[in-house]
Design goal:
The chain is built from one helix and six strands; from the N terminus they run βαβββββ. With 82 residues, the chain is mainly beta.
Length: 82
Amino acid sequence: LYPNPAADACTVELPPSDASTPADALATVTLRDALGRRVWQTRATGRQQQVPLIGRAPGLYVLTIITTAGRIYAQRLSVINP
């Protein structure tokens, strides 16, 4: 996940072992605010996914990736004012 902190957008990158596995070709990427509310979600294919942050309130968020193989990755993201 980079950059972190981020203002306008960030990029999520799956580890090579997950991105190269056909079962993991699709993943659900979810952004949740500090209260656990889902504020953004998409289905991702490939190794990288851009996460738009324009209009998000500054603060801490949790970005979660769930692959079709059931692997779960989560990381905190700090959103700042541009």
